[in-house]
Amino acid sequence: MASRKAENLVLICCRLHGYEKYAYDYLADKLRGLKLRAEFCNVSQADVYAAIENEFPAAFILPRGDNIRYDLMKLRALSRDFPELRVFLLDFSDSPDQIQSCYDAGAFAVLTMPMPFERLAKIIEGYVTGGFESEIPYIADYLRKCGIYEDSKGFDFLCRAIEIVLNDPQAVKGIVKNVYTKIGEEMSTTYTNVDRMIRYVVDRSLETGAIDRLTGKTHTERPLNQKLIRDICDMINTEHKRYFIIEE
Questions:
Q1: Per-residue model confidence as pLDDT tens digits over 4-63
Q2: What's the pTM?
Q3: From CA 233, how far away is CA 228, in angstroms rounded?
Q4: 1: exposed, middle or buried (C-beta count within 10 Å: 0-12, 13-18, 19+)?
Q5: Which of 58, 113, 138, 211 could pair covalently with 128 via S-S, beta carbons 3.0-4.6 A apart?
Q6: Cβ proximity of 131 and 186 under 8 Å
Q7: Cα–Cα distance, 100 to 193 (Å, whole number)
Q8: Are 51 and 41 in contact (CB under 8 A)?
Q9: Do you find a cis peptide bond into 114, omega within 30 degrees of 0?
Q10: φ, ψ (nearest 5 deg) of residue 111
Q11: How deeply is 80 buried, as exposed, middle or buried, from its count of CB atoms within 10 A (0-12, 13-18, 19+)?
């Protein structure tokens, strides 16, 4: 067991030389700019365990390599030996089955790459500092597991829109006023930009079949944002019984 916990430490697992280290140095700079401590450990199991046991991190970033079987073994071992460790796996595949296998192996969150390191750093900060709205991490994980793209601001807008409707089912009936405008005010943008960015995420996710997997329905044409948000809320309600079922 780790000797002490560090509430703001982010531990990045990567090779400590060459291009990979150079790239993640940039990520570390972005994390430090958000007032987090970013440190590195080598990829060997001995080095990983020594680093964790020396100072238990608030987040552990594990970039997935070419050998998925080896990475899954590493995830399972970390989950077994450090059950409280929050492992953020950086995955370069958009395969829902592969992403699900990473969650099954113990990943706290699977973040689909590539995405800008500025955005990646903000996601990590949200988990570490608790800056997310109360249900946002849960909703984001739910969408990721179905393969929804998260490489734009529209993913954040979609998560927040789902959260608003889950907590106020009637909000979906006036989505511009009750959802888009509210998000725009919270995130310093216009309601039209919120609508446009959510549509961008939906369009990309339709191309990969992620929307069909998420809602359990086959879409022959693009659903309206309002209908899609309603369907996602219905799925969450039905599968997890966390909220009231949305009424017609």
A1: 678 899 999 998 888 888 889 999 999 999 899 999 999 999 999 999 999 999 999 998
A2: 0.58
A3: 9
A4: exposed
A5: 58
A6: no
A7: 31
A8: yes
A9: yes
A10: -105, 120
A11: exposed
